[in-house]
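Lest this sound abstract, we think one record worth quoting, the chain in one-letter code, the fold tokenised, each line plainly labelled:

>
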Amino acid sequence: VCDADRGAAEKIARRFLIPAVYTEIDELVGNEKLDGVVVAVPTAEHAQAAVPSGANHSCWTTHGNPGRPE
């Protein structure tokens, strides 16, 4: 799990029994062999988050959903 908020990453990791937590994408990519990634960041940051992984990735947006960030 990678999240700028280490506490949030640790919470998700515990919930899904994921052994490693990262706060930097470069650290995650350098230490793990990724089969795929889910990019859950604002639209403007998708490429920055997904491309370095070299893995298959999926991106969702909340376009057209008032009250939720993009």
